Amino acid sequence: MSCAYDSSVAVRHVDLSIRAGDFVGVVGSSGSGKTTLLKAMIGAITPVEGHVTKKPGLRVGYVPQVESVDWNFPVTVLEVMAMTRSANGRMPRITKSERASALLVLERLGLAGLENRHIRELSGGQQQRVFVARALFHKPELLVLDEPTSGVDVRTRHEVLHLLADLHDEGVSIILTTHDLNGLAAHLPRIVCMNVEIIADGSPIEVLSSDVLERTFGAPMEVLLHGGLPVVIDNGGTDFAERLSRLA
Amino acid sequence: MMFAVLPTGLTTPFHYQFFNNGILVATIAGALCGLLGVFVVLRGMSYIGHGLSHAVFGGAAASAVINVNYFVGAGIWGVVSGVLIGRIARRRLIGADAAIGVVTTASFALGLALLNRYGQAQKSIEAVLFGSVLGVQTVDIVAVALVAIFSVVLIVALYRPLLFATFDPEVAQVSGVRVGLIEALLMAMLSLTILVTMRVIGTLLISALLVIPASIARMLTNSFARMLWISPIIGGVSAFSGMYLAYFLDTSASATIILVSTVIFIVVYAVTGLRGRTRISGLHHV
Q1: Is residue B49 assigned to a domain?
Q2: Amino-acid biosynthesis: is it a keyword of this entry (chain B) (predicted)?
């Protein structure tokens, strides 16, 4: 499958399978086609070449980047949840059964009591979880998250990681994009490295090597093993530190 | 006679049928623009509303010059302008705001030139810019009322898809909402509103009533549902009060209505303070 915006190719010749029970991280630099790949998977973008095949009736939940959300928009947490039930001529008022189902999901994600809050009034972690809650509201089999830990602090990142691990344990398949190699990607069972096309696909131990990372990010990186997990060292940063120390 | 309990002097304007017709149509138009203004403001379409109302001016002028029914001429012109804006904006080098600027100013200028060359320019231009709310005919009242009823029914029936497509169009599309259709319906409602209200309240007042009441409502509430009834009330009240004051001040009805809504905006802005300012600054306009 390939995707393009006008004459600019964003994703080229990608052949990727997501199976039931997968927990996949797509890594790559900005402009590497990660978000385009996710959007093509969920049907928001039509590929210019090839196609996306989904299991008939597959329920997909999509969590957009928090940076793309208009936090000033006048909606409460409960209204955000109810939006996903927009089809079949539903009336404006949220029904009792919808409210009860939404409250269960919110409680499950640690957001109990926040249903009537405006979305701007929540913390970063709570805001991220509201959109996960919206995706979970119609019980997805596949959860697709675009940069779920982008721009969040370490504590929130841990919260999101634990939440996703719990959902995966409950049988939800997950695919997400991330820039965060050490904090997120290295902990996942499967990583796909992208730079417009797929550079590597496998477990972190198999995929995270200096060669693959240089082809993915276009910059030299070193990989060490720590406690059985690969740790990526940014060589460019090391060189910069050495130059600074020489100046001092 | 309306408002029989008011002192005689204050009820004087209601003795005139033309005033009663004018204030009725202005109030409905104010409420209608206030209702649609919620979507215009939240979708960052303020400039589109402003632009379309100016673009339709070209159609109105052409209709007058070639002696075609106003609703037909201005309607076709509005649709063509909307399509042109869409086509130009799709070329990524030119943004939507620039596309609107090019098409609407060209359309406005063409209308102006046509009236200069063939029409009673000064009189017609004033009528289009400021409307002729005191020269309202029954057909205008019926047209504005029908579009208002149509808009309310559509917004109630499609409330959730409209909300979803306004807040998060991409996810709405993926979740089964026909975003293209919803946006087309919204543009149709907006175009119809501009079409039926322009001859009555004028281009400038339409632009103002599409933006000011909804912005006031946004400062007053954090709820989309509440905005949908606060904004039409503010639009209707501004139009009613502006018309009434204009009679006594001997000023343009459109200008007075805009000034009344602006005063309400300033008062609410001051009262709601920083919270309101943050909300307004967060509204993106295209």
Answers
A1: yes
A2: no
- Which residues 103-162 in chain A show a CB within 8 A of chain B? 118
Closest CA to A186 of A232, A235, A233, A236: A232
Q: Give the span between the Cα atoms of B55 and B110, in whole angstroms.
A: 9
pLDDT tens digits, one per residue of B81-129:
777 776 676 665 666 778 788 888 888 888 878 877 776 655 556 666 6
pLDDT at A91: 67
- Nearest-by-Cβ selection for B160 from A60, A76, A86: A86
Amino acid at B261: S
Q: Is the Cβ pair A87, B173 closer than 8 Å?
A: no
Total domain count for chain B?
1
Q: How does pLDDT run across A199-212, given as a tens digit for each residue?
A: 989 888 888 888 88
Closest among B41, B63, B166 to B111, alpha carbons compared: B63
Provide, as residue numbers in chain B, all residues whose Cβ is less than 8 Å from the Cβ of A80. Answer: 167
Backbone angles phi, psi at B93, to 5 degrees: -70, -25
The total of structural domains in chain A comes to: 1
Close Cβ partners of B208 (under 8 Å, ≥ 6 residues apart):
B257, B258, B261, B262
CB-CB under 8 Å, A64 with B170: yes
Residue A215 included in any domain = no
d(CA A221, CA A233): 6
Which of B171, B215, B272 should one mutate to test binding to chain A, selecting the residue with the greatest count of A CBs within 10 A?
Answer: B171
> Is B286 inside a domain boundary?
no
Distance CA B222, CA B243 (A): 30
Work out the average pLDDT over A14-28: 91
Q: What is the pLDDT of residue B140?
A: 87
pLDDT at A87: 61
pLDDT digits (tens, 9 = 90+) for B11-44: 888 888 888 888 999 999 999 999 999 998 888 7
- Across chain A, mean pLDDT equals 84
Residue pLDDT, tens place only, A35-51: 999 999 988 888 999 99
Choose among B125, B127, B103, B128: nearest CA to B116: B125
Q: What whole-number distance in Å separates Cα of residue B144 and Cα of residue B89?
A: 30
Q: What mean pLDDT comes out for the span B53-74?
A: 78
The reply to whether A65 falls in a domain is yes
Distance CA B182, CA B188 (A): 10
Q: List the domain range (segments joined by +) for residue B258.
A: 8-281
The answer to the question of residue A223 being in a domain is: no
Residue B176 within a domain = yes
Residue pair B267/B218 in contact (Cβ under 8 Å)? The answer is no
The domain that holds A156 is classified in CATH as 3.40.50.300
Residue A228 lies in a domain: no
Q: Which residues of A touch B176 (CB under 8 A)?
A: 86-87
- Asked whether the predicted pLDDT for residue B64 surpasses 80, the reply is no
Whether chain A has a CB inside 8 Å of the CB on B214: the answer is: no
